[in-house]
Amino acid sequence: MLLFLVFLSGIASGFLNVVAGGGSLLTLPLLTLLGMGIDVANGTNRIAILLQNIVAVRNFQKGKALPLKLSLLCGIPAVIGSIVGTLIVIDLNQELLKKVVGILLLIMGIFLFVKPKMWAGQSDKKRNIFLVTVAFFGIGVYGGFIQAGVGFFFIFFTAALLGLDLVKNNALKVFIVLLYTPVSLIIFLLNGKVMFFEGFILGLGSMIGAYLGVKFALKKGINWLRYIVFATILISAVSYLI
């Protein structure tokens, strides 16, 4: 029964991670119910992240929504950051970290609500290469270290710094996550933090969810995505703060 729930959570998380973010907040608790420590759950979850983003990137590319050159440029600092985030041992107060992330998510939610034009895309947006590099390096560190909720940071900074609409924004996000996830997965694997069978079950569900998520994003467009992102950001923020 738990494995079936893991499969279903994979579908839900794959869909959420493609159209918004926060899918790992569903899967990590279920993996721990299977008896995994949070470190092993974090590593095992990377299998699903990898598989869902392979499906998502392929379908966004088929839908001509993926800005490939820009994604590669932003992906380089993110990959380097993810290696740092996965390798380093940081003596952080985890409860304090959760509170900080929760507050940041609330701020993103406010921007999403009060600045709707920000998420529609700004083709004339001037891009500061230094800020883009620093931002995506930082996102990579967070993604390598924690992963849960990283999609929201991609969405916010992609809109704020690159001027992409939410559809292209999500396409860029899944492409970059696909770039750095194999590196993180290998590091977790070498440290014995991955359970393959459970990860594969989760991955199967997440591939289905990712496929449905891309179809939804391409069909419904920016307005629907904005509401979903807003709702998932608020729910994720509350989960971090309580």
Strand and helix layout:
Elements lengths: L1 H18 L4 H10 L4 H25 L5 H20 L6 H21 L14 H17 L4 H13 L3 H25 L5 H46 L1
Helix pairs in contact: 1-2, 1-9, 2-3, 3-8, 3-9, 4-6, 4-8, 5-9, 6-7, 7-8
Q: What is the percent of helical residues?
A: over 70%
Please tell me the overall pLDDT. Answer: 84
Return the structural class: mainly alpha
Radius of gyration equals: 16 Å
Put simply, the count of helices is 9
What are the secondary-structure elements, in order, as H or E?
HHHHHHHHH
The unreliable regions are none
- Shape, principal axes of CA atoms: globular
Give the distance, in angstroms, between the N- and C-terminal Cα atoms.
28 Å
| Domain module count | 1
How many strand segments? 0
Major sheet, described briefly?
none
Residue share in β-strands:
under 5%
Put the structure in a nutshell.
By secondary structure, the protein is mainly α. It has nine helices and no strands.
